[in-house]
Amino acid sequence: MLWGDTLRFIITGGQVHDATQASALLEGLTVDAVIAHKAYDSNGLREKIAVMNAEAVIPSKRNRKVSIPHDQDLYKDRNRIERCFNRLKHCRCFAKRYDRRTTHFAATMIWTT
Fold this sequence. Notes:
- With 113 residues, the chain is mainly alpha-helical.
- Helices cover 40% and strands 5% of the residues.
- It is built from 6 helices and 2 strands.
């Protein structure tokens, strides 16, 4: 797998937190590491990643009693993902979701990548 390839995406409602879909997105993948923002720091997700024999590169939340270390050099690659989303947001209909239909939103996302 090359860095920056889109593997999967799930479209949810605006009120749904992205972390609720992380486990489903990882289902069936074979990867060496999973890089994620600290919002994804949960024991359940870390267990899922461990079962995959992958490294969880997720910083600990501030409210975690015992901080879990992560590879800071590898975590810097998360910047590439952020840049991808920033480019997608240049498409006004993607950033603002003027068209509320999921099928049009997905087509817009595929077209802009």
